[in-house]
Amino acid sequence: xxxxYDAAVGWIHSLLNHGMKPGLERMEWMLDQLGNPExxxxxxxxxxxxxxxxxxxxxxTVLEESGYEVGTFTSPYIETFTERISLxxxxxxxxxxxxxxxxxxxxxEVAAASPLGxxxxxxxxxxxxxxxxxxxxxxxxxxxxxxxxxxxDSTNVIHPLVSVITNVGYDHTHILGSxxxxxxxEKAGIIKSGVALITTAEKEGVLALLEQTTxxxxxxxxRMNNEFKVSHISSTxxxxxxxxxxPYRTIExxxxxxxxxxxxxxxxxxxxxxxxxxxxxxxxxxxxxxKIGLARAAxxxxxxxxxxxxxxxxxxxxxxxxxxxxxxxxxxxxxxxxIHAVFSALGDKDIESMLQPLYPLIRSITxxxxxxxxxxxxxxxxxxxxxxxxxxxxxxxxxxxSACESAEENDLVLITGSLYFVSEIRNYLKN
Length: 431
Description:
Blueprint: H1 5-14, H2 25-33, E1 43-47, H3 52-65, E2 70-73, E3 85-87, E4 90-91, H4 94-112, H5 121-137, E5 141-145, E6 162-165, H6 173-176, H7 180-187, E7 197-199, H8 204-216, E8 221-223, E9 229-236, E10 239-245, E11 250-256, H9 261-281, H10 287-296, E12 304-307, E13 311-315, H11 320-333, E14 339-344, H12 351-355, E15 364-367, H13 378-384, E16 390-392, H14 396-406, E17 412-417, H15 419-430
Parallel strand pairs: 1-5, 1-6, 2-5, 6-7, 7-8, 13-17, 14-15, 14-17, 15-16
Antiparallel strand pairs: 2-3, 3-4, 9-10, 10-11, 12-13
């Protein structure tokens, strides 16, 4: 029995070492024991390699502006553990988390002693989220973000109103494989019979696989640049402006505060999803609600400016596609700027191929590390990189301080890499 928040979260984290065990059998068994709370929910399932969190945020803010209560399940967390399970952007209360941990823990122990094996940390968090939404908070809609892959991800127990796959690229290759077709196959595993798919995927082979899967599942696919389109008007200091076209209506002069062409694509995925729900499920979503909701959407740790003179920006670009998007955003919003990067990553990443898009844009890069089980040392990162002006500092406090002190007033200090790293640095800089 847990009596404190720290004890409950400590128990959840202790499950991490049980590792990953493919299959949904443990999830299905636990949910069955709990009365299948997921069956009471109207859900939107969001998968893909990058952009899931931003897409979830755009969906949430527009739906909130439209008068709906919205539950969200996201990962990883940036500020507090409880933010992963939120209602209208407000994290689950510590009291509710303790209550639900006490409800789930006996089932975990029974499963661990059976052929099912011990549920993983992520499986337990997913069950707690579904219980919270299905038995305590009762939101109108729940937006569920896929944790890893899709086909065997613990969130794939839901039967959503609509599915979204933002894009498909290389990440978690040690689990999903290094073949893009295999990665796409895993992502496409969230596509279900009769459930429409919205996608901003652009790679030809990936799109072909998604199209084939939707045909097999006898459902409709809405593809960016086909069934819906987005026209990027301009980039400003405040963000991006664009026009959105769908089979159902065109909405002109939309604005988002999150910067980068990739964020325009993420917003278009959210907009097509909302249009589908409006037309086929009768959701009341007016054009002005869309404009207000999009404009106020913010997602911490994604090209987020924390300080000025010099500007300090944090961005959780943790895979090749993420770094490519970051590089494009830098070219648009910080042309002709001296950029001093501070970078840290986990040991399972191909550091050199990941950083290649940044090299032509940065003046210097400092490698560092942080306190996390899979984090790699600053020296090891330094040795893997072919950057011309590079250094390393094992203490990230010193690395950031040095970068800020050496930067001129109009320079940019860019702190990037692992989302876990960005989360730690962001909290430090803000507090």
